[in-house]
Amino acid sequence: MVPIMNSNDDFHAIGQTNKSKDNSITSYTQFTTRYDSETSTIWCWMHPSPRPCMNGQLIDELVQLQHQITDTYKNQHVDTTWPFRHLILASKIPGIYNLGGDLDLIKKLISEKNEDELRKYAYKATDLIHRNINNLDLPITMVSLVQGQALGAGFEAALSCDVIIAEKNSRLGFPEILFNMFPGMGAYNLLARRIGTSLAERIILSGRTYTAEELYDMGVIDVIAENGEGVQATEHYLKSHNQSHNTIRSMKKIRQIVHPITKQDLFDIVDIWLDASMTLSKKDLAKMERLLFLQKLSKGSENIKNNELALTSRGGEWRKVTDASFPLTTHLGENVTHNRRKKNCRRQNKLPDEVTS
Fold first, then answer.
1. What number of CA atoms fall less than 13 Å from residue 276's CA on the CB side?
2. Domain boundaries along the sequence of the chain
3. What does the pLDDT average to over 199-216?
4. What is the Cα–Cα distance from 7 to 26, expressed in whole angstroms?
């Protein structure tokens, strides 16, 4: 049970519960928590292992955290002041927010045609997303702080929060189209609610990773922070938010009325995602394998930290960046030593010897 805390208490005890009859998680291995009494905030710092993705253990632990918070609220004494107003989802991994679904598991289950197990994984992730969308049915605000790359299901997790705060060097996108799939855990609904269906489809179908500033201009991201100042920007936002907490809560209720997102809607989309996944070709799965390679490579990678290992679409967004430095690794795991669009290697049937896959 999450303790009701005084203003000077830490929040680390949230994961130190006794084992319940239903074998619920007794401690957290995929994230750490901290309580900030000054801003009435629970910080959840994700560090999923062995890869920075939405693995099953991370999902289970986040769901357990959600239930512990809601149980505490329901069981608090009538005279007790509710100790927090915000839940922040952030990442402890430098340069990475979350790189998406567990591609290792997804690829394995698709190869085995194990639709039932894949459905369990997808429904579990979708249930987590839906509870975030509804603020755990509590008078709190969900905030995501993105300091690095947020891709696929990682981007969906950020979108499920009320507010997205991102540092300038962050990159966000949905690379699923690169292996002939689409994001199936709420991306369409969440983007459409923020920016409309036309722009939502454009983002999903592009396969691009967008800069934080691009998405801010589109209306996807709410607050842009200077690099390295995401925590300070979040704290500043929270303090200003507390002054108008009642109004903002009311606006969220109105948004749910005008643009409702039901769990059944999300599950129906997951079912479409499942049908599509079962028809993927070996070539599609090979492309997924290359993205999985980048998930494995990215753990603790200084390349990710320095934004040198960006996941981009095959359309070649890296070629459009004037300050691109070589060698680099493409979204499909290709090692590229120089700009292939230079005159001496364009439109040739054979790639230069220096370019290897």
1. 15
2. 12-275, 314-357
3. 97
4. 24
Quickly state the pLDDT bin for 310 (edges 50, 70, 90): very low
The pair of structure tokens assigned to 102 is 């567990």
Question: CB within 8 A of 357, min separation 6: which ones?
Answer: 332, 333, 334, 335
Distance (Å, rounded) from C-alpha 144 to C-alpha 251? 18
Beta bridge mates, 95: 148
SS3 287: helix
- Residue 166 has which token pair? 């991102």
**What's residue 305's pLDDT?**
43
> CB of 303 within 8 A of CB of 59?
no
Tokens standing for residue 159:
């979108």
Rounded Cα–Cα distance for residues 130 and 124 (Å): 10
In the CATH hierarchy, which fold is given to the domain comprising 12-275? 2-enoyl-CoA Hydratase; Chain A, domain 1 (3.90.226)
In one letter, which amino acid is 212?
A: A
